[in-house]
Amino acid sequence: MAKSAKISASHETGGLIVHISGLLPSLSPAEQRVARLVVADPADAARRTITDLATAAETSEATVIRFCRSVGMDGYPQLRIRLAAEAARRVEPPDARVVGGDIPPGADLAQIIATIAFNDARAVEETAEQLDPAVCEQVVEAIGNAGRIDIYGAGASGFVASDFQQKLHRIGRTAFYFPDVHTALTSAALLGRGDIAVGISHTGTTSDVIEVLEQARSRGAVTVALTNFPRSPITEVADHVLTTAARETTYRSGAMASRLAQLTVVDCLFVGVAARNRARARKALEVTAEAVQQHRVTNRRKA
Amino acid sequence: MAKSAKISASHETGGLIVHISGLLPSLSPAEQRVARLVVADPADAARRTITDLATAAETSEATVIRFCRSVGMDGYPQLRIRLAAEAARRVEPPDARVVGGDIPPGADLAQIIATIAFNDARAVEETAEQLDPAVCEQVVEAIGNAGRIDIYGAGASGFVASDFQQKLHRIGRTAFYFPDVHTALTSAALLGRGDIAVGISHTGTTSDVIEVLEQARSRGAVTVALTNFPRSPITEVADHVLTTAARETTYRSGAMASRLAQLTVVDCLFVGVAARNRARARKALEVTAEAVQQHRVTNRRKA
DNA sequence: GCACCTCGTGAAAGTAAGTTTCATCCGTGG
DNA sequence: CCACGGATGAAACTTACTTTCACGAGGTGC
């Protein structure tokens, strides 16, 4: 039977549309009408049912099926999902976003959301890229072996410090965080060889944190600094320096992205430490999760 | 009150998978089996027929249909093309990374860093994609006009709550955060019409937070919930629901990505509020920045 | 402890979508 | 004027999708 020129089934993922328009002239009139609809708006075609599309092309379902076969598909459903896939792929409008910059005055919420998310995601990715695994390894090692872990941070970095403390505590490491400088100083004074102190400061210029870290170091503790600026003062009192890569510089942005970058670093260290002793960490996590269980309500679902 | 919180069916093209994983816990067991298959490999699911998928999930076609409806689709074909579209859009991560999953046991630091950063960045991006600007607008409006702002959160979400409080405070809004449930409850009891309460809970099942939010609502305050799961109990006591889109589900990952997603949402709200009154917010930020200036050291650089 | 709900579930009936078959139409060349 | 062959759509057919319904588990109130 006239198995009319079955064009090599383009099994490659892309190029279906191109493929179709390429062999458009070789199609029968009725099939061409279908093809034109498909090429004109693949996404729309994907949404239609075969009868619907046939009607739109002023033809019958049979012709649509024939068209599917002509372009190398098994049947209509297959064409449909391929079209949906391609339509989705080509819709990628990388509208110019304000990279690392301020939010334009007239921006609406949607723009604000897009800009912030973009910058936040960037900060996280770029931080990960420039993080030195070797340094991380040393820090993880130190934390894993430390007798005591002190974590310092002020303001926004204080939240990160606090978060880190809580995480380490949850896997059974003896970690402390002090919101108050005086308490932190006394704690630092009691550190010694085999202990570790981590100072977090976005700018790297927070005198309180630097001071405490210095104290800790003078007592023989290993010191770690987490900052955005690799040459900032805090690095002078640190044995190991980890840096974030948040671009924001203006106070106006309120160091938003930097927090996320700091947290990402904290997460990496945490997972690294936990991975050193899987069994123990897992056990500790299970126990702690269980502990808060009674403070969770069972899922009384909504209608 | 269930009617108050509507599950904004992510009408946009993107975020279906994320949307589904968010709803996962609120689905019935059989539907969850379907959901897991779909989330695990959307492209594959798109290729399957409904009977096929039902068999794979060890359930009936009826359940698959119910699942479609649960996630806001009209029927199976619609789900199918949406899945195909999303699968196509998703850029395959360079090296096979464990998306939303655990870190492989033998991983070295570099792998851990890459995986965490990838998941963190994704959570931020996907959260932004599915955030409903309209709801944000309402919340921003409410916060901007509120007499008093109470923010509740426990555990990891507590840090986020605290961060939010600090941010709002910095631009001159009267905001509070209470680490202690009892204090929070008394504060909530003193709220009234014109005030606003924000409850943050990743799982949406933290009874303490729900309880306090409920109290606030009963006093006439506008209530806002920030959670990863759009049908969790907390949404029942909230006038406005904002959702994050962190995929992690295992407690093992310690809800790491979710924090970042929550912070991104907080940042958006913060900037939104600040943008409402640029002049005043800027002034406040300048003044507060100046206040901590003397706690910064000048750049005595390293040798 | 019983009656009664409600909810999740799959079997089966029902409907719609997709596919095949086949008769018709129409132009072409004998 | 009559085959002939390809294009086409109506209709039969098959498969996929959707709805309905009854059963059973787990809870709730009497």
UniProtKB/TrEMBL annotation, chains A, B:
Pfam families: HTH_6 (PF01418), SIS (PF01380). SUPFAM superfamilies: Homeodomain-like, SIS domain. Residues 139-279 form the SIS domain. InterPro entries: Homeodomain-like_sf, HTH_RpiR, RpiR-like, RpiR-like_SIS, SIS_dom, SIS_dom_sf, WH-like_DNA-bd_sf. Residues 14-90 form the HTH rpiR-type domain. Keywords: DNA-binding, Transcription, Transcription regulation. It comes from the Bacteria. PROSITE patterns: HTH_RPIR, SIS. Gene3D superfamilies: Glucose-6-phosphate isomerase like protein, domain 1, Winged helix-like DNA-binding domain superfamily/Winged helix DNA-binding domain. This is SIS domain-containing protein. It comes from Micromonospora echinofusca. The lineage of its organism: Bacteria, Bacillati, Actinomycetota, Actinomycetes, Micromonosporales.
